[in-house]
Amino acid sequence: MFTLCEEILKSKSKGKHILFFNNTQLLECSILSYLPENIVIVLLSSIIQKIGKVLPVRSYISRYSADYFSFLLKEGDGKGKLLLNELRKESMVDSFNYSFNTINKFTYKYGLNWLNNEYFNRISTKLLLIK
């Protein structure tokens, strides 16, 4: 969550942020030596859905990887254009009448003390500039 918030703060993008997740395969990571890939994917999917509910970031879970999506767009493939249209449609839905009460409860519940009001005020200011 911290990395996601930091990326939003560093971003120079004028658009809304979308968290893109491939739910069919993962890149090599150390957690796969402890848990099977399908369990990790289910856990990450549920975490991403929770993040989408508590942070003002859209989440998009796809069966395609971001690299494959990029390849489809470069090739001019219809699947890539369809996916791009879905992402654009998702980013246009304006449900960002957002308060940080939900995230404050979330951070308190899970003991994420480094996520304080000052930090979220910076993110909120950044997101207001994007609107």
Summarize, please.
With 131 residues, the chain is mostly helical.
What would the keywords be for this entry?
131 residues; two-stranded parallel ribbon
> Which residues form runs of ≥5 with pLDDT under 50?
none
Q: What structural category do the secondary elements indicate?
A: mainly alpha
How many DSSP helices? 6
* Helix-residue proportion: 55-70%
What is the ordering of alpha helices and beta strands?
HEHEHHHH
Beta-strand residue fraction:
5-15%
Determine the N-to-C terminus distance: 22 Å
- How would you sum up the global shape? globular
Name the average pLDDT: 76
Query: Quick one: how many beta strands?
Result: 2
Strand line-up in the sheet with most strands: 1-2
Counting structural domains, the number is 1
Main beta-sheet strand count, sense and barrel state:
2 strands, parallel
Give the radius of gyration.
16 Å
